[in-house]
Specification:
The chain is mainly alpha-helical. It is built from 4 helices and no strands. The chain has a domain at 25-63. The protein has helices at 3-7, 11-23, 26-35, 46-51. It starts with a helix and ends in a 13-residue tail after the last helix. The active site is at residue 23. GO terms for molecular function: DNA binding; DNA topoisomerase type I (single strand cut, ATP-independent) activity. It holds the Pfam family Topo_C_assoc. Residues 7-63 form the Topoisomerase I C-terminal domain.
């Protein structure tokens, strides 16, 4: 997945972002980022980091 794809504004990205925020447990996202060595800042902006900070100490092996 290219990070530049996320910076484009359009209905597809809006839908993808809403789905990610509404349906995906942030612990899954944090664990995936840790496992794949992807900086969480590439996925969550500052306001989402503040909102989901409680999930940041999840183990990389977390499974829902």
């Amino acid at each position: 997945m290219e990070c530049d794809e996320e910076t484009k504004v359009g209905p597809r990205n809006l839908t993808r972002n809403i789905s990610r925020l509404s349906y995906l447990d942030p612990r899954i996202t944090f664990a995936w980022c840790k496992r794949n060595e992807v900086p969480i800042e590439k996925i969550f902006n500052k306001s989402l980091m503040a909102k989901f900070g409680w999930a940041s100490d999840v183990d990389p092996g977390f499974r829902y």
